[in-house]
Amino acid sequence: MTTENYNVIGVMSGTSLDGVDLAYIAFAKADKWTFDIKYAETVSYSSQWKQRFQQAVELQKKELQILNEDYTELLAELIQDFITKISETTYFEGIDLVCSHGHTVLHQPENGITLQIGNLPELAQKLKKTVVCDFRIQDVKLGGQGAPLVPIGDRLLFQHYDYCLNLGGFANISFEEKGNRLAFDVCPVNIVLNHLTEKLGFPFDDGGKIAQAGNVSDELLKKLNGLNFYKLPHPKSLGLEWVHKEVFPLLGKSGLKVEDQISTFTEHIALQLAAVFKPDSSVLVTGGGAYNGFLLERLKHHNNLNLVLPNKKIIEFKEALIFGLLGVLKIRSEVNCLASVTGAKRDHSSGEIYRF
User: For the chain, first and last CA: distance in Å?
Assistant: First the structure.
């Protein structure tokens, strides 16, 4: 059997604003897909870039275009620095593709709108590499949510788990049901928790220690659990705008200490997650939230699950890994976006290919 090989760079920037994830990955396709994350790192955002992202939802069209151009320039610099670093290593075997998600600043699929900045054609010109990017917009045009896109990778690379759970800016899950891959966003996670912990001078709640020491407000918890999004059927997805409109006002009006807001929101996450899994299932847990031991403890308190934490590279770089795979599938003209997940009119091969 012939094995086809691809060496790619997967690039991901999530809504939790941790930074840019970059992974150098070797993919091989024989009877099934296999992968090796040869090297990966996260480059943190400056406080100025974090502020620009947080204010992006308020920008007008011309200002968004400037932000898009500036961020494309930043991504090109970061990716080029990454290429320079790995090109000097013994495991470097060239680069076939750079596969980049960009950074989501607008996501309103119900209005036919989604915008991931950093996906301009100039990226390929600056890097002198073939770039595959802008994976969401086609799906929205086909009537889909444009999210989540990771489940095709879950199916092809991690099919031996009952569920795949990613705890990033938002929590999303994917699973097989009656021959279809299903997936949806469950609730906000680090996009809210990190926002709160930063008020206390910490970038995140290390291990969930702040949440564990705080007190849960039954009143706030009831209001959070009562948000209409949780009553909607899937497919469904969340964006920063929803958090600004629905979640932050509830937290702000609660009058609670920040520590108690963190504790209450952590319990809210655990309850929302517990409700979506069948008991006794195996769940692959990835994303920054996988390190929040108290959150996982509360999840297991509410539902008897076998939570599996893989190695550090997969925990931290699974999304960069899978966007690398999405780019490879696009180049091969193979399906990389599932209608059963996003609600689009059909399965399709999404993304833009830019050649230099």
Answer: 33
**C-alpha Rg value of the chain to the nearest Å:** 20
* Number of Cα atoms under 13 Å in the Cβ half of residue 55: 11
Q: Which residues contact 107 (CB under 8 A, 6 or more apart)?
A: 113, 114, 115, 136, 146, 147, 237, 238, 239, 240, 241
Domain residue extents for the chain: 4-146+345-354, 152-312
CB 294 within 8 A of CB 212: yes
Tens digits of residue pLDDT in 209-268: 999 999 999 999 999 999 999 999 988 888 888 999 999 999 999 999 999 999 999 999
CATH architecture of 152-312: 2-Layer Sandwich (3.30)
What pTM did the predictor assign? Answer: 0.90
Element (H, E) at 181: strand 180-188
Report CA-CA distances (Å) from 228 to 19, 187, 224, 231, 247.
30, 12, 9, 5, 11
Length of the chain: 356
